[in-house]
Design a protein that fits this description.
The chain is mostly helical. The protein is built from three helices and no strands. The protein has one domain.
Length: 67
């Protein structure tokens, strides 16, 4: 299994916080979809979600900060 690094997923992003929230939300979606479809997931939903973000299947949109 390939090691994933946060810096690789966060390219061009500012906050690890947004990555954590996005991965958690996507992992919940994956788990819910599997449960609703009666599927058994052999891999942890969090690992699947991280891989999806790494492959640019989903993007993290950060709000614009105004001072």
């Amino acid at each position: 299994m390939q090691k994933l690094f946060v810096k690789d997923i966060l390219t061009g992003k500012k906050s690890k916080y947004y990555l954590v929230i996005a991965v958690a939300k996507r992992a919940r979606e994956i788990a819910d979809e599997a449960e609703n479809n009666g599927e058994i997931i052999l891999e942890k939903p969090v690992n699947l979600a991280i891989r999806e973000f790494e492959k640019d299947m989903y993007y993290i949109l950060e709000p614009e900060v105004t001072n």
